[in-house]
Amino acid sequence: MALIIYFFTICMVMVLLPTVVPQSHVQNAPDHQDNAPAVDLPSQNAFEQIAPVLTIDAFPEDEYSYGENATTEVEECPICLGEYEEGDTVRKFPCGHVFHPECMQNILNCRLKKCPNCRFMFA
Fold first, then answer.
1. Residue 46 counted as domain residue
2. Is residue 103 in a domain?
3. What is the pLDDT along the chain (123 residues), one digit of tens a residue?
4. Among candidates 56, 122, 66, 62, which has minimal Cα distance to 98?
5. CB neighbours of 80 closer than 8 A, spacing ≥ 6?
């Protein structure tokens, strides 16, 4: 038992020792300057800042219709599961999937811009 405690203590010292730095080895930021130019690192939200802003107007609008001129073979919106009615306004992603405009706007507000049906990335 004593051997296990000894081994555990040695392991803990080896793990924790590198994290303890004597104050004599710490340099203050103002004293530690070099001649390198300052570089602004990108923020965590850099993608959102440079990504193009997609609006719902970027996607074609259509009226939902049944029959041989059907807008889509799907009879309900995959987002809200509400049935399309004849004459409903729908919008189409580049992959061909159709959604209510309100449901599509919810997708556009998401960070990852992709079709919920096929995962097609459109931004």
1. no
2. yes
3. 776 776 556 655 555 555 555 555 555 555 555 565 565 555 555 545 555 566 777 788 888 887 766 767 788 898 899 998 888 899 888 888 888 999 888 888 887 788 888 888 876
4. 62
5. 100, 102, 103
Tally of domains within the chain: 1
Range of the domain at 91: 55-122
Q: Tokens at residue 54, please?
A: 């997609």
In this structure, is residue 108 part of a structural domain? Answer: yes
Which among 57, 55, 84 is positioned nearest to 71, based on CA atoms?
A: 84
- How far is the C-alpha of 76 from the C-alpha of 100, rounded, in Å? 9
DSSP assignment of 63-96: E---GGG-S-S--B-TTT-PBP-TT-EEEE-TTS
CA 88, 93, 96, 99 torsion-angle sign = negative
- Model pTM? 0.51
